[in-house]
Write a structure and sequence with these properties.
The complex is a heterodimer of chains A (502) and B (162). Chain A is an all-alpha fold and 502 residues long. Chain A has one domain. Helices cover 75% and strands 1% of the residues of chain A. Chain A has a two-stranded antiparallel ribbon with strand order 1-2. In chain A, a hairpin with a 6-residue loop joins strand 1 (183-184) and strand 2. In chain A, helix 5 runs antiparallel to helix 6 (105-138). Chain A is globular and about 70 Å long. The N and C termini of chain A lie far apart (63 Å). The model of chain B has no long low-confidence stretch (mean pLDDT 83). Chain B has 162 residues and is an all-alpha fold. The radius of gyration of chain B is 25 Å and the shape is flat. Classes of the chains: A mainly alpha (502), B mainly alpha (162). At the A-B interface, helix 3, helix 8, helix 9, helix 18 and helix 19 of A face helix 1, helix 3, helix 4, helix 5 and helix 6 of B. Chain B: Residues 6-153 form the DUF1468 domain.
Amino acid sequence: MLEGILMGLNTAISPGNLLMVIGGCLIGTFIGMLPGLGPMSIIAIMIPVAISIGDPSAALILLAGVYYGAIFGGSTSSILINAPGVASTVATSFDGYPLARQGKAGKALTVAAIASFCGGTIGAVLLMIFAPSLASVALLFHSAEYFALMVVGLSAIAAFAGSGNVGKALLMTLLGLILSTVGEGALFNAPRFTMGILDLQSGIGFITLAMAMFALPEAMYLVLDPRRSDNDGGGEIKDLRITRAEARSIAPVIGRQSIQGFLIGVLPGAGATIASFLGYAVERNIAPKAEQEEFGKGSLKGLAAPESANNAAATGSFVPLLTLGIPGSGTTAILLGALIALNVTPGPRLLVDEPQIFWSVIISMYIGNVVLLVLNLPLIPYIAKVLAVPRTFLIPFILFFTLMGAYIGQNNATELLMLVGFGICATILRFANYPLAPLLIGFILGQMLEDNFSRSMQLEGGIGFILERPMTMGLLAFAVLLVVLPAWRSRRQRAGEMPEGD
Amino acid sequence: MALDRWIALTVLLVALVYGYAAFFTMDASLPPFMQRNPVWPSTFPKVLSVLTILVALSILLGLEKSEYNPGEGDVDYRRLGDYKVGQAVFFLALMVLYALTLRSAGFLVSTVVFLVAGSFLLGERRWHLMIPVSLLAAGGIWYLVQEVLGIFLRPLPFFMGV
């Protein structure tokens, strides 16, 4: 492991890559602060930039930096103007915004930054310990197990979608898989489902789809509901210091929530969001009676808990991506797409074939966290000025960046029409509470899922591979259980509530 | 019928068409040597279409309990009239227009028109701000994309050189 750390340091400390981390963090914070642009949209916009860099380590370092920056920027806007850009920072606004209203915005931002820093760093240490051992186990897997594992991942994402949404999440995953079969596959050199349209020959562009699923609906929401981008510019930020007593009171919270957040983040599904809400709830429950009253009115513990949990979870979500090549969240799905575009296949082989990528990403996580704390925090009062940009300028620019992101990735104007079309569909899906991340994850995993499925079919000469490999069968059974169990439980609950004779 | 069921119905129809294509139109053109393979190009789509039909039906029939309660800050589609739907539709039209004119009118012209029209639509009337900002943004992004990233973007209309 030490060898790997040194290799990672060697790559990550090079001036160019350091610049990538710093630049990525700053860009991420800057854009992440804007209402309506979450980490997913920002990373999707940055992908063409990352791809044109060419070097996969540098590109991934840039994107990881953007990711942290965006999470931090999202927390900042939750605290300052009560406008969380992403679901995972909603819990931050519970206590962060009251603090800002009391004139303690600077203190709240410092606590958030320290909590994020610790969460991210502890997460990175755990990632470093867990990932290599998980990857060495995953090396034993054959394509049949891989296929089964991906099915488990996809159904877990649906299962963690929350009660009443499992079917919807499942449907979106399947829709994503269906979309991924459009175009020419790697295994069969014949186009499928292109309906004779030449532009579909190479399949649907994943950046286009990512933009259409996240950035465009969010921008449409901003247009539809002017209150979403209402703000008074955030007010004055001063006094970034916290006292020693305050630091001592939040330290155990940060420690607990970092570990808990990381473990939740490793699970596929809505990692960071669940981690931050659960972290908030747990800390409120175990706090002394007097401090419980404080929660929701500006408790520092209530701010530190979700912040450290969501950062640790964000780091945790890299575990399945780097070791199995299976993204557990929308953001890591986009990162996976970027990696594939850079000709790197994440998975257990990554650690063997291209260890410098693996380790430099982990090292860049440390550096990114340090950069956020040392460089971004003092700059926040200035960066926060962007919140004062009026929405009449902000929204056209957000849409323009969305269009550019899709265009320069493919250099094809038809892509823009597809973006608008998919974007309208995604907005309608969002109206009805259909989760959109599973669609994108399904779309990105579709190709690999089919390849592994076909390979195992060909090796065993038929569908028998499921029966002949106990591990595959076990995993598939587990996947079915994951999906069926929540639905069955909610039905039983409903049956219990119904009066007799109904 | 609530919107989520309408969507399930739409997806169901899509899956039926997709399934029809997978089951009945793809295998005929398969070369004989590939027919000996255990897995055909249509195998995976067939599985997908069946699963999608099942899941869509389960939502359509309400097998899983689900309640619609938009969270704070979410758009409630049942009161869509309260929102700026007109502006949203205009923006979508503007994006389509942008896509159609990007090649022929060139990047600079179409971008400036897009940004100015977008701001105007949202109620901005300070022309002395709108025009310089969009000119600057269009020029800056063009420079970044063309010169730094090295991706070709035709800057000027088609009749004015490349």
